[in-house]
Specification:
The protein is mostly beta strands and 183 residues long. It contains two helices and 13 strands. InterPro entries: Peptidase_S1_PA (IPR009003).
């Protein structure tokens, strides 16, 4: 696992895993958001549209939780949730989608690009498959990490991430860079 910033240089000679991690950060980091849930609790979400944030039900279980949260997009731009405009959550699916507006007044900020939402109907999440995670972990910095699928059923995926605790809402990608799951 490595903490990446925009100034990291990945040179020749890296393995396939390192090249994949290096490609995930610049192409997908701009859609991530850090959610301050109060106190020292943080979660992660990502934009699925220019004005919609996807996260876990555990992060934002209610309209009032969304109203009291603070959002910061990865590019440093502040944002505000508008749950009265759009809010849907499911404790069964552990998903929440909520309305969002960029607040820093910079309408030229590009926060969504179709390639960010690349999905695939045939994900590679078999037992033993490598997966890549993008989100906030223990150090509260945007991090790209790697894991391995240790349990794979029709409705459950369990990962081994070498003891790293990922914030709920972090994005998971298969070996081809397809959005595959959310922590």
């Amino acid at each position: 696992m490595g903490v990446l910033s925009e100034t990291w240089c990945f040179c020749n000679g890296l393995g396939k895993s390192e090249r994949m991690k290096a490609s995930i950060f610049p192409s997908k980091a701009s859609i991530l958001a850090r959610i301050a849930l109060g106190g020292s609790l943080f979660g992660t979400g990502f934009l699925i549209h220019s004005n919609l944030l996807l996260t876990t039900h555990a992060n934002l279980p209610s309209v009032s939780a969304a109203e009291s949260s603070e959002i910061r997009l990865q590019n440093g731009v502040g944002a505000c949730l508008f749950p009265h405009r759009f809010f849907i959550t499911s404790s069964v699916l552990d998903l929440t989608i909520v309305g969002l507006d960029v607040m820093d007044g910079d309408s030229s900020v590009q926060v969504l690009h179709p390639q960010y939402l690349k999905t695939c109907s045939k994900l590679n999440l078999d037992l033993g498959s490598a997966v890549y995670l993008l989100g906030y972990a223990e150090k509260r910095e945007l991090t790209v990490g790697e894991g391995k699928v240790v349990i794979a059923t029709d409705n459950l995926i369990m990962l081994s991430t070498d003891g790293v605790m990922w914030n709920p809402g972090s994005a998971g990608y298969d070996v081809h860079g397809n959005l595959a799951f959310m922590v």
